[in-house]
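To close the chapter, one final illustration. This time we ask the reader to focus less on the individual chains and more on the assembly as a whole: which components sit near each other, and how the overall shape emerges from the parts.
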Amino acid sequence: MPEIDLQEPPELVQSKSTSEAAIECFGLSKTFKTIKAVDNVSLTVPRGSIFGFLGPNGAGKSTLIRILTGLIHSDSGSFSILGRPSSMGYQVRQDMSALVDRADFYKNLSAFQNMKMLGRLTGHEQTDHVNELLNLLGLYERRFDKVKTYSQGMKQRLGLAQALLPNPKLLVLDEPTTGLDPQGMHEIRDFILKIAEEQNVTVFLSSHLLHEVELICSDIAMIFNGKLAAQGSINTIFSNMDSVTVELEVADTPKALQYLETADMVSDLKQHANALSIMIRFDKIPELVRQLTDRKIDIFSISQRNRLESYFLSMMEGK
Amino acid sequence: MMLLKLTQNELFKIFSLTRSYIGLILFTGIVPLILWGYGMGTSHIEGQIENSVSEMFFIEGSPTNGFTAAYFIMNFFWLHIPFLLALVGGDIFAGEHANGTFRVYATRPISRLSIYLSKTLATMIYTLVFVIYFGLLTLGLGLVWHGGGDMLVFHEGVLILEGSDALGRFFIAYGFSFVNMALVSAIAIFFSTMVRNAIGPVIGTMALFIFVLMISTLPLDIFRGIQPYLFTTYFSNWEKAFYDPIPWGDLFRGLGLIVSNLVMFLGMAYIIFHRKDILS
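The assembled structure is written out below.
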């Protein structure tokens, strides 16, 4: 198990100078009545990264995002976005765009009208630009239909199109795949990767879908009970992980259990129905397979649990 | 420039909502009905007026003409229009909260002051459009239907106003009515910044209006001291535009109180909106 000291999150912090940071938070706090939703959070989001902001429901992810996007006021602390300090007021959001929570629209208007109206606020209402984005998100053919006739997936894509209207340098997405079917989630993921790569947009992605984050993010931060527990690049975090969780399905479970209970390289052995779950160092997995086959234990499947999930759960347990 | 674009958006939103047309449609239906009924059922009134007044004065045209009809309708509706205006003013902030669309706006690089001003301005423009439409419908249609002529006003006896004079006084009356209705919209905006559903502000506005109206009209000694400071005391001030001479002092005193209430409600609304956490 990795040794994690929740009081020392900077252990994993990559040192970034202000000029390299898309977002920097300094001791942000927010309390709702008696609940401390965000507690002294300091965070650095590198420019050009796809940054995954993780935490269980109610951990404080949305509250922090709402502070950054100007929807709520923090009780203390400050932040900067793309080098602009929060003391600049609404101008801090000059090159930032956000899709907070679910995408919402004027449902009695069409997608085209919604886009035009929002584009007008930042001088990006040109019909060509609007059409290009609607086309990019696969909504062009239905652009004149009222939004109330759209499916959840279409609404979410329209939300992304709206977020991209001002050609942002920083895109803040709060649970962008909520309510989508697997295909919709896949499309949004691909789209995020595409815009980050092609348009050099920094993406700050809040999610509790660890698999989704592991697939697309270069950097992550984790928040529990309003406190930042860890932050850094995914590679750094994974290289610091001592062990991974591996799940096994074998032909002879009692025999495998007998071996695994005595194997030095294995820890935290658990049995779930016909499957076995163990903790093992990543580089010891091939040897484990050899040992089992040498003992004539047929292996039906061996799978490593999502590494980020393992890390997340270990943090949760440490909490 | 930004304020102009925001206001344009707000007006577009207001006029794309069905509720914005409820009042206009209602008047489009009921005003012609009243005018028709007015034409059908005033022959005995007309006869009485002519019998009592024609010996002393020569009345040009019918005494129950378009001017008198418009005056009659205004007298009837100044208490009802606030209900219809509250439907739009009450929705202007709360409706966005209910729809979740505030998040879309407020995350853009726009100041809350601009958002607030644009919404307030758009609501006031809607109020003005409403009053103008009401004026056009009552006076315009009234004149077309029942013709012009001298206007009879019953105030401390019978006052006869020449047609050309009456028209000017109607403009003054509509002007003062607009300020009154702008105050109703301001109250609705104030309630709208406080809650997250559109029904509350409509009910709140009307509850406050009725409450203050009752206190300002109840002939009880305990209320007499505060009645001069209540905005509803001056809501029927538009009638004074038809007095001879026009009591400008009274009119502007009432206007001053209405405007100060308007500024107070809009000021409070801004403070609430500026400090508000957008959670929905």
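The CA atoms of residues 44 and 95 of chain A lie 17 Å apart. Confidence is low (pLDDT under 50) at residues 1-18 of chain A. With these observations in hand, you are ready for the problems at the end of the chapter.
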